[in-house]
Please model this.
Amino acid sequence: MKYLSTPAGTTRIGLAYGPGIPEFVEAHPGLVDYIEIPFEQLRHSPLLRSLQESVPLVLHCASMSVAGFVPPADATIDAIALEAERMRTPWIGEHLAFVAADPLALPGVAPGSPTTLTYTVCPQLSEETVQQVVDNVALLQSRCTTPLILENPPQYFTVPGSTMTMVDFVNAVLSRCQVGLLLDLSHFLIAMLNTGADAHQEVTRLPLERVREIHISGLNTQSGIAWDDHATPAPAPVFELLELVLAHSRPLALTMEYNWSPNFPASILHAHITRVRHLLGTA
Ligand SMILES: [Fe+2]
Model:
């Protein structure tokens, strides 16, 4: 089995698991340091664990509902902790978002199980949510020995009841939790575009010294709203943000999330890995 080491001062370059990604990694020995794979995918397809015989894996997760008010099942937390130990992942990257909500209240129907959203949703950005995240993280850290890093979510609209900006929310959470930051620069740009904020100004207000990992991916715009899109390459503004961040911090890992399309061009994967290595000075 191969395990990822993450020495300080070095940035490992990885790809998010998706169609064609293992084949690309195999075809380009030495180009990619790791594959980042979701817990949910491994739970559904345990045979994917065999990937680690040829390339180190890093665990991503969308099941902890860290910014939610409906906790995950105990069995789910146990399974995540076990997967992380088995993989020897340096950390678990989880979204600063929620995936479960209260049971739907339908007229004449007794409430059932919590509502599963199947997608990580940006929470209300408020002191109430910050406190809930602090409590949720404390519980998760008591059940799981692998370090947790939290990923800023894409924000598509101002969530009702919000009292703070995305940057203030991330700062508030990290000031009260012993976790690293998984800075998704595409999510960040999306949030800034959709809330009319200045991305270059705001990015430097983040706790950049806490960044352990960076994500980059594409985005697209529909009806005036910017959306997350892992089927397209990161555009120039994402690379501009990356340069700004790298001037202030040295993440341990950078993952390209180009994993939604089997037709994503291998030539762009190769070119972007090379571009990132140049920015990091490791080309
Ligand atoms: Fe991401």
Summary: The chain has one domain: 12-101+112-280. The mean pLDDT is 95. The CA atoms of residues 21 and 263 lie 11 Å apart. The pocket of fe (ii) ion is lined by residues 151, 184, 215, 257 (CB under 6 Å).
